[in-house]
Fold these 4 entries.
Entry 1:
Amino acid sequence: MEIEFLDVLGMKVKSQYRELLISPAPDTAAEADEFTELPERHRSRYTRLLVSDGTTDGFVVCGSLRIHGT
């Protein structure tokens, strides 16, 4: 499986994940907001995603996401 993040504004991820969990980030994801400094008027154009292996959390702020199956 291949996951492609498009129009990435900012991210904090590990170089490898044994297991990959991706979900919408909660509205309280302040770290992603602070990191990207995205103006309020543009927030609707970007998706904030929580990226995790179940132990360590990171994030991706992107315009869209594509998942390609094998």
Entry 2:
Amino acid sequence: MAGTRRYDVAASGRWWDEDDRRWLPAGEVHAWEPGRNETVCGLSLHRSGLSRFAAVAWIDVLPESGGAADAVRRVCPRCAAAAGRRGTDARPAWRRVNPRP
């Protein structure tokens, strides 16, 4: 059985959180897999000018989570479709159990 993928965050901006004393993502956010040089939707991190936030999980930047989403203006719809909006489970909501021959 395959394990679940872990997605971190790449964002177009950043802001300093005085309470947590760390940088958090701002602007447009994308899902990013550690060890890759591109986002899940295919944007190059360097060419797009995106900053990596390895300490921030993907689920924390979704507006409904209320986590690190204070300064997030837009969530990439292609990354949200690939990484999911259901937490750490990044697989599709349905799965065919008995496919036809």
Entry 3:
Amino acid sequence: MDKKTLDELEARRAAGRRMGGPDRLERLAKQNKLDARTRLDILLDPGSFSELGVLGRSPHPDLHDRTPADGLIAGKGTIDGRLVYVCSEDASVVGGTRGRTAEAKISRLRELALKHAAPYIALMEAGAGRFQENNGAAAAAIGNRFREHMQLSGRVPQVAAIMGACFGGPSFTAAQSDFVPMTRNSGFMGMSGPAVVRVGIRKTVTPDELGGWQMSSEVTGQADYVGEDDRDVLLSIRKFLSYFPSNCDHLPPRLAPEPALCDTEDGAEALNALVPDNHRRAYDMHSLIELIVDGGQSFPFRPAYGKGLLTHFARFDGHTVGLVANNPMHWAGAMDDKAANKLRKFVDTCNAFHIPLVFLTDCPGFIVGPEIEEKRMVSLAARILNSVASSEVPKVTVVIRKAIGLAYLALGGKTMGPDRLVAWPTAQFDVMGPAAGVELTYGQQIRQADSPDDKRRELLAQAEEDASAYIAAEQGLIDDIIRPDETRATIIEALESAHATRRTGFVSRIDP
């Protein structure tokens, strides 16, 4: 082949890799942002990236020369030696707006991720679709991306990192993904950006008000993790995927087991002393988790949302688990609508990718009252029960203290089919909180007593005695009562028994 022909190819390739030019790249750096290619360098194993579509450009005559790679870097690479497909949106090209060629490249990437059963990762800093390429009747054919994401759902892990303004379509596809990390102060997601809101309802708002990191992580729960900067977000993706199989046809990877803090004499003593006998006194569930998991390390999922419930990925004896635990330091561990939404997404994700569930239960029930009813708590609670009851992964439930009513069921109660159900000596089971039960059942008797307060205390003490985990154990309603320092060994033993008979296969699609 003529050298001139080959030189032209190399020149076109080089032009496609230049991005938006030095001035625009410098502007991104001043905003404390990494450019699209540097992001890939951090995310992927060194030297593993292979690009697809570097010659792509906008077909629009006014944009052709201004759109190297059409503002989207796409291809495959590896993370910890495992294949992933990834795209990285280039904000230095036409402000990161999405072109038709870029859409075609992403569609091809999703096709390959599905065909090769590999995780799909989108590093997003996308403005809206370019109006000049998508306006008019051509809009009748938009939206392939949503069908493609649904085809991937539950089959391969999907990650959508919000690293810039991602209002509109990018936010919708992020909501279809399994993990959505966001960069603090520079990531935004929502239905529409400030300009569209101003035109649509004549209201001036800021990006933060619509979908900044606080709104997305604390109020809506649509961001699963908030990174301090781009690098933090990229490393969180590597961490998240380390707990997952590449696809639903495999079990999660098992790493070399690491000892837990509770394996030491001091750690065991700390675990035994952590939880007060008095159910009205709080303790830090984070400390309990740290004491019992491999290496004291876990990865939180939506930590700022639904704070009465903790959801973490962790390991026991090298095996990945999804940890669900109540947080007594927030509303005594009671569950609200946010905790319910978080729990359902977490359980469905774990179930789709064969990640066993470990419940550390200490919950006085669901939040009650007219405000929570307005948030459809009945429906949310019912949907949680559906998810937990239909999950096919191994489940281990350890009741720490309170196991009350339907919340207990949602947290791996007996009728949800746990592979092991044990309790600490401090545990109590009841259909509702003892105080409420006493008032409902004996209210008139209390009011007619010579000393209502003494009578109430007497009846409450009896109700709490009747709720004792020892009675549940005596009647064969739970498997055992264990010492706190036996918790880790009990969980590992239960998981080993379940692992011996596990099967893989497509389980379910995931509802965000």
Entry 4:
Amino acid sequence: MPRTTDRFLDIRRDPHSGELLARGGDLEAHSILQRAGFVAVVRLHESYHRAPAGLTEADESRLATEP
């Protein structure tokens, strides 16, 4: 039986903190995010990726949109 995967990835700026966050996706998407420079955040009930601290807003936008 084929395995179902979560291929949808949501990258957006958090309205409360202003951080650039990526949520969702499968293991391949997580690997690509980490190679692109995102930092993995693993908490008790959730996991997501965030842009590294210290980037300008222009650098964050480039990180989120360039292949």
